[in-house]
């Protein structure tokens, strides 16, 4: 758990210019450990939060289960960043 949190705190250091970074945080067990509840169903919203945090650190590719919720989090992150990625800010 500590290793995962340390990596998440420094994702920006893993981003290589011109190369997209892929992250797969969806429903991971370390989320349940942080929250003190191991139920996978309760890991969805923390996953959405982590998706936004990861995007703000430069991560461009996200493997998730709840696509719509995470897409909306990415739209908000892009709005904060003042930019946009093709398909992310397009209303659909």
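-> sequence recovered:
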């Amino acid at each position: 758990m500590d290793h995962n949190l340390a990596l998440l705190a420094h994702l920006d250091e893993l981003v290589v210019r011109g190369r997209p970074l892929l992250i797969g945080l969806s429903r991971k067990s370390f989320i349940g450990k942080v929250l003190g509840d191991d139920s996978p169903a309760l890991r969805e919203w923390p996953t959405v939060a982590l998706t936004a945090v990861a995007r703000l650190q430069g991560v461009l590719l996200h493997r998730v289960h709840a696509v719509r919720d995470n897409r909306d989090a990415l739209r908000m992150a892009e709005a904060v960043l003042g930019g946009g990625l093709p398909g992310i800010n397009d209303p659909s």
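The chain has a mean pLDDT of 89.
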